Amino acid sequence: MRVSVIAVAALALGLTACGSGTDSGKGGGTDDTLVVGATAVPAGEVLTYVRDHLAAKAGLKLEIKEFTDYVLPNTALQEGELDANLYQNQPYLDDFNTSKGTDLVSVVKPYLPPMGVYSHKVKKVTELADGATVAVPNDVTNEGRALKLLAAGGVIGLKAGAGTDASPADVTSNPRHLEFRELEAAQLPRSLDDVDAAVINNNYAQDAGLSPTGDAILLESAKDNPYANLLAVKRGHEDDPRVKKLAKLLVSPEVRTFIQDKYHGSVLPATGG
């Protein structure tokens, strides 16, 4: 992610802790509280449901720390300030481990937050004018994901074999001569008045009051989708009994029903694999 030193410092100061645990926030603290980092929507909401309705019965004490970016939850997990986090997908985690030298692994994948294309100017992606500007996330995996979504919608073509790290250099067909503006993922909702369309991650769309099922002019399909969000821990902590309890709860019938009832298709329960 291209986050400035100043932005990182501000985000670090702005972290919001919620939950009833008394732990200091250090991973593996002095009591049995499991400290989990998350973005607010949907991860924070799903974890809050687990904490408030399921955790006590399972013998789990859960503290949730909310983050406003995609970098700090992983660095905090690697450094032991968190026991786990929930917000990212496997391609992003793989790229983060490679680029940052972290050693984080997936435990369970409880839901899929589909990425969407949003616009204040057109109602369909096929209405984008020649030379239209489309904002996309500026990190490798989310930019690749955005381009694949545009390709799936028939707006552009990508070269054969373009994977999760696809970039504008992999665009082989661009009949509308779209111009891609790379922005930090969190800034994309605020760009909608300045661009013709933006490809926005689910959590930031919902934070901005956008409904993926109601407002997106193009939305990812769940079929064969590799971008389910995952519960991550530092390697070697997969068998922590607290982590295993949380993993089981995240794919429980109760959480599946909560996701279906609350998000109405804007977030999709996964199989938990």
UniProtKB/TrEMBL annotation:
Indicate yes or no for the key word Isomerase.
Answer: no
Asked if the record carries the keyword Membrane, the reply is yes
Where would one find the signal peptide in this protein?
Answer: 1-19
Topology versus the membrane: Lipid-anchor
Mainly localized where?
membrane
Q: Which InterPro entries match?
A: Lipoprotein_NlpA
Compartment list: Membrane
Give the Pfam families listed for this entry. Answer: Lipoprotein_9
Task: Name the UniProt key words of this record, in alphabetical order.
Answer: Lipoprotein, Membrane, Palmitate, Signal
According to its UniProt record, which protein family does this protein belong to? Answer: Belongs to the nlpA lipoprotein family.
Q: What is this protein called?
A: Lipoprotein
